[in-house]
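Allow me, if you will, to draw on your knowledge of protein folds for a short while. I have a record of one protein: its chain in single-letter code and its fold written as C-alpha cells. The full record is reproduced below for your convenience:
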Amino acid sequence: MRAKSLSLLRSAARCSRSGPIAPRVAHYGVRWSSTSTRERQWSTPLAKSLAEAITTTGPVSVASYMRQCLTSPEGGYYTRHAAGHDQFGAKGDFITSPEISQVFGELVGIWLYTEWLAQGRIEGGVQIIEVGPGRGTLMDDVLRVCWKSLSFERIGRQALDCAEGNRLEWAMLMDGQTIQHFKPFAKSIEALYLVEASPHLREQQNKLLSGTAQFEKIDIGYKSACKYLPGREITWCEDIRFVPKEENTTPFIIAHEFFDALPIHVFQNIPQSTVPSASTIITPTGPITPKQGPKPTQNQWHELVVSPIPSTSTSTSTSTPSRLSSQSSPKPEFQLTVSKSPTPQSLLLPIISQRYKALNHTPNAIIEISPDSLSYASDFAVRIGGATPSATPSATPSSPPADKPSPSGAALILDYGPSDTIPANSLRGIKQHKTVSPFSQPGEVDLSADVDFLALAEAAINASEGVEVHGPVEQVFFLSSLGIKERAEKLIEKARVKCVGGMEGDEKAQEIVKRIDSSWKRLIDRGPMGMGRIYKAMAIVPHISGKEGRRPVGFGGSVVG
C-alpha cells in the first residue's frame, strides 16, 4: 500500500538485516501501573484502550496489536470514518498503483483474460473475487476491460497472436474510453465478490461499481447490482470464508496490496543463557505454570510482544529504524519487548516450515510469520485446485474445502516484499505519505509489513495438489510482458489527438501526456527504490495434466488458447 514511503524504509531495513533493531531485552520484567495508564494523555482513544487492556492482561502479540490498530470497531484505521479523511490518494496517507495509472488495472484485467483463454474459454461459472479492494479503483478498471467499447474477439485477437517473445503488442487499443472489451469472457462471469471488512470502504466501492443501485444486506454480507455487467450482482463479504466455495466454479482472484496489511507474529531466536527463568507461560486465557523439565541447552524462539512505553521513560527505541525518525514524526507510545516465557505461537509457528527451522542455530535471528496470510493463500489454492487430503493443519483453510473434479481459475498476488528471504524488521507505519513509527497514534497510522512470498507459495502447494505457483517476479517484468509501454503510448497518442483537435488545445495535451508518461514509468521504475523492483507479482494457477511446463503471461509465458 504504500508506494511513496517505501523507498526510505527499504534503505533502512536493508541496513537492519544483520541484527535486531527493535527488541529491548532489558525489558523482560517491565511493569505498568493502571493508575498511571488512566491518567496519562494518549494520542487516540484506541491507544488508551490498548494500554488499559495490556495493563490488565499483559503484553500482546504484534499480530493482535496490528489487528486492533487496523480493524478495531473502537477506531481502527480502516474501520473508523473521520469526516473528510480518505486513506487513499494524494490527499490521504498513501497511493496505490491503480490510483497512479488506469493502465495498471487494465493490464490486470488482460491477465485474467489470458488465463481464461489458456484454460479453454470456460463458458460459465466464473467468479471474480478481489480481497482488500480499497476504494474499488482496481476492480473498476478490470470491469471496464471486460465490458466497454467494441468486441475484442472481432478486433483484437490478431494483436494477441503477434506477441514477440514475452511482450504483447496491443496494436488494437482503443477507440473508446479503454481497451477493447472481452465479451465472451464477460459473459462467462457468474458472480463478483469483494472481501472487505471496512463499512466505509464498502460504501465507496458500492458507489463506484454499482452507481445508484440498492445496497442490500444479505446473510453473508451485502449485495448490489454491477453497473458494468447487466444481470450480475456484486457481493461484499467481511472474510473470504463467507464466499461460496463450489466444485463447479472457476474463481479468478485478485489480491493487490492485501497481504502486506495482514497481521504478523514476530519471533527472535534467543540464546538460553540470556533467558531468565520463567514460572509461567502466557496464553489467551491467562498464565499457566509449566511442568519443570530439563533446561534447554539450545536457542529458543521467543515472541516479540507489544507493551506501552512507561510514562517515565526517556528512551525512544522502537521498531522503527532510527534514520526514519524525525523531530516532526509522532512519538511512539508502545514498544517491542521479548516475551519472558514461550507463547503458544512461539512454540508452534517457527517449526511449521524448514525455512524457519534452518535458523534454529542462528542466535538472535528475527523472523516474521503471518498465519492469516498462509490461511488466505491456502484458501486460494483450494478454490482453484481442490484440497489435498493430507494437507497439514497449518495449511488447511478455515472453511471446509469442496471437492473439485477439475482444477480451474487463478489467483494473482501483487504486493511488496523480498523474493526469496524471510522478512525481518519490516513492520512500518505510514501517515501522509511518510514512514512513521508503527507504535504511534494507533488507529490513525496505517500499518504494513513485507510479504513472505515463498511462505505463500509453500502454503498454496501444501493445501492443494491441483495448483502450481509462478513467481514472484518483479512488477516491471510482469507489466512489461503485458504491454504497459505499448498501452501507455496508445493513450498518449489518443490524448494528443483529442486535445489538439478539440477546444483544450496543445497546452492541455502536453499536460495530459506528461501525466500519463510519468505515471506508467513510475510503475515500472527499476531503480534501487523504484516500484518496478520493490513490488512483485505471483500467480497461483491450475496444474493441468498435459500442460506441464506452461507458464502464465507475465511469468515467462505467452498467450495460448
